[in-house]
What does this fold into?
Amino acid sequence: MTTVHDRGTVKEVMSKPAPLLNVSQLSKHYPVHSPFGKLLGPRKSVQAVADVSFQLYEGETYGLVGESGSGKSTTGRTLLGLTSATSGEVWYEERDLTKLSNRELQQMRKELQLVFQDPFSSLNPRKRIGSILEEPLIIHGIGSKRERQEMAFEILEAVGLQPEHYFRYPHEFSGGQRQRLGLARALILNPKILVLDEPVSALDVSIQSQMLNRLRQLQRERKLTMLFITHDISVVRYISDRIGIMYLGRIVEEAPTDALFRDQLHPYTRALFSAVPDAARVGRRERIVLKGEIPSPLSPPSGCAFHTRCPLATERCKRETPELREIRPGHKAACLLI
It folds into this structure.
């Protein structure tokens, strides 16, 4: 809160809190080498993420939505330092994560954790669940052997599993249970920020609802801040406070959840939302069918990346790259026609 003096009176103005995580102009390019390997050097690069900027505020859930190949997962892995950034900054507690050494990053990962999309491949099949859960605690030197075991039992209970699961192997669990185990492993270090990469995409609808309700409960209890990566708009509507829409490595629209579902500004967002089943609006909503395929990130289009599929595109869209700008309070879009 800041104090402003105005003609002898004192006014208290509520200022917006500083973001817990500030991602600025983040880009990730992968080199593509010639058929002769690295001998001749890279010929081109795949533009997986291009100038992505957004903020995470304490206690909120930010949903990152887009088609497969839009760069959602790469964004999550890059901001955590699991993949090195080509350019850009990721500020957390006055430190740029992209500039930290591996040792410094390892210490920071106690507070920033990732839940992987495929829990089975991320769990060591040769280790019992207790050993898998205690491994991060051992790496960071937390607790005695008995204390680590107690922490493992507590986190299993927190995610809806039983103490006896401590002694089992990953192959003995169902898909929903393995996803809970992935969540337990991330939460056992008591992080402040949790990045979830398609955490419910492989689950049945009934199991999805259980998982999402558990996440919301854990968020309240542990005061978690979450980046929720998904392609499922109905899921992101339920769990997110704000939503960013990605297309070909860029965020093209960002808004609070209610505002975005009430009115979509970007043509791509309108097309995505028109494909979502909504029983209340059957017969009253026009289905927007996009022509063509998503362009290759190896050679993205000039100007607006969406102009090759946009029904409203003009010659200007082929030349100029739109910036993500605020159209309404809290509602941003990257479109030259708005």
The first helix runs from residue 72 to 79.
